[in-house]
C-alpha cells in the first residue's frame, strides 16, 4: 500500500513539472490566440518555364542577327547621280555591305564587268548598282542618233525637266514663219542651276541653262539651228524613258502643225 502511494506521488510530481515547463514555454511554443497557420509556399512552374523560354528566345535572336551580319557581302553602289546614257567609270562607283540574295546586284568583285557599260535609266546617288539598269550598247552607236545641247528658257520648257524625260521639240515661229515640230527627243543630261535659280537657271546663268538631248540624227542640225537662234520650245510627253527605247525617238520635221 505504501509503494502505491509513493508511485502516485512520483507521477503527480512528473505531471506537475511538465505543466510548469509548458507554462514557461519550454518544450513547445503555443500558437498565439486567433492566428492562422502560415500556408506552405506554392511553386510556380509556369513562371519558371516562361523565364527559360525568354532566355532561349533571346539567344536564338542574337544568333540569327549575328548570322545575318556575317552573310553581308560588299556590293557596288552609285556615288553620284548618273544621267541616262552615261558611260560608267570607276570613279562613279563605291561599295557597301548588304545582305541580299538578288542576282541582279553587282558584287565588288565584278566591277570590271560593268565598267564601260551605259546607264539605261537615270541612277541616283546611294543606289545599289543593278545590272538591269545598264546596257552595253552606246546610245550613239549605229550613227542614227546624236546628242545636242539646247539652251532652256523659262516658260518655253516644262518645269523639273529631268534625265529620262521624253519631250517634243518645236522650233518656235517668228513673223510669217509658223512653229515647226522637230523631233521626239530624250533628255539624257538635265540642266543644273549653278546660280540657285532652279532647274532652268532663270535663263541668265552662264552655266546650268542647257540640257543634252538624244535626237534622231536627221533633225540634229535643225535643232542646233533653232537652239542657236533661241527659238527652242519643248513639251513633256513621258517620264522615265530608257535610252534603249530608241523606237520612241523620231523626226517630226515633216509633220504639220
Describe the fold and architecture.
The protein is an alpha+beta fold and 257 residues long. It has helices spanning 2-24, 45-70, 111-114, 220-228; strands spanning 73-78, 93-98, 118-119, 134-135, 145-151, 166-171, 180-189, 210-216, 232-238, 250-251. The protein has 4 helices and 10 strands; from the N terminus they run H-H-E-E-H-E-E-E-E-E-E-H-E-E. The strands form 3 sheets. Strands 5, 6, 7, 8, 9 and 10 form a 6-stranded antiparallel sheet that branches. A two-stranded antiparallel sheet has the order 1-2. The longest helix has 26 residues, at 45-70. The chain is rod-shaped and about 155 Å long. Residues 73-135 form the SAF domain. InterPro entries: SAF (IPR013974). It comes from Aeromicrobium choanae. Keywords: Membrane, Transmembrane, Transmembrane helix.
Itemize the secondary structure elements and their pairings.
Layout: H1 2-24, H2 45-70, E1 73-78, E2 93-98, H3 111-114, E3 118-119, E4 134-135, E5 145-151, E6 166-171, E7 180-189, E8 210-216, H4 220-228, E9 232-238, E10 250-251
Antiparallel strand pairs: 1-2, 3-4, 5-8, 6-7, 6-9, 7-8, 7-10
InterPro entries: SAF
Protein name: SAF domain-containing protein
Keywords: Membrane, Transmembrane, Transmembrane helix
Please outline what is shown here:
The protein is α+β, with helices and mostly antiparallel strands and 257 residues long. The chain is 24% helix and 21% strand.
Which features characterize this protein?
257 residues, alpha+beta, Type Iii Antifreeze Protein Isoform Hplc 12, two-stranded antiparallel sheet, 4 helices, 21% strand
